[in-house]
Amino acid sequence: MRLLRRGNSSSGARTPADARRQQCRRRKQNACATKLLLAAISLLAAPGILPAQSTRSANISLRKRLHINTLITEPDTIEIDWAGVYSFSSTNFQMPAAIKFTPQGHHVIWGRTEYSAAFDSLTNTQIAGGRETQFSQSVTATATSVLHDGEKLDIALAPQATFFLRDESGQRFGVVAIARYDSGHNSMGTTFSWSAATHSSPTNPAGTFDVGFGYGRNLSGSPLAEKFTPHFNLVWERSTGQTSFVSLFEGVEYQMTQRVAFDLSGQHLGGSGQPRDHQLVFGMTVNLGKLQ
């Protein structure tokens, strides 16, 4: 399990011919990663590929675990995920945030489990006669436990509880299963999640199940290229009494330092029979380092 973020790779002594061959391979691999990202964007532009707009905020922190963030935060450190999300469809603006901490230890629940809280630090929505700014509608608490820590494959389980602060009553409880595979500069993973409401409503369905897939490739060839990671995600979701829902995400991360990274992404949310919601996301991940 990689607990430190990607750093610049190093290599031993090579002949000029070896260096040229390696550089050629890296250029081809970088070109393939870029083409894959452009292909995802072209699919998003095609009519009819995406179903509809969602009122649910995307789980940005979870998607990052599949390719650019570590599966859990480095033990004995606090990490903060923050983002600004602008909707071109509704002009709404959100600032989702997640605060994550993994205690130092040698046990599953104390040393291999990350505890986090996620919420919208600010939401600005258009209403009749103007705009309204509020704090988050809900707060989600998650405990992400690493069950299998392999050389390349990692598996984690994350129970979740969501508590509504306004507009809804009751809570939501669920669990997320995460599998991630790292090979060289490539990272990919999948998620399976289920949640249920203690008090359902038209905007808080009784049950929700979703499946997600993510892929990212850390570029290579130069110290500057190694700081960039193009990535994309696909999420399929189905809720009780509602049509299925598909979301596509594509973006690129810039690793400024070992503990600070920035991310620029596009989000395309939709469900059958409704208008699409295209969003722009600027995110930042900061690891505050050891507590002691």
Distance between the termini: 23 Å
Poorly predicted ranges: 6-14, 33-58
- In spatial order, strands of the major sheet run 1-2-3-5-6-7-8-9-10-11-12-13
Mean of residue pLDDT? 82
By CATH, the architecture is named Beta Barrel
| H/E topology pattern | HHEEEEEEEEEEEEE
- Radius of gyration based on Cα positions: 20 Å
CATH level 4 superfamily: monomeric porin ompg
Count of DSSP strands: 13
Helix fraction, binned, reads 10-25%
Query: Helix tally?
Result: 2
- Class, according to the CATH hierarchy? Mainly Beta
Task: Compute the number of structural domains.
Answer: 1
Q: What summary fits the major beta sheet?
A: 12 strands, antiparallel, barrel
Strand content: over 45%
Look at the helices and sheets and give the structural class.
mainly beta
Q: Could you say what the CATH topology is called?
A: Porin
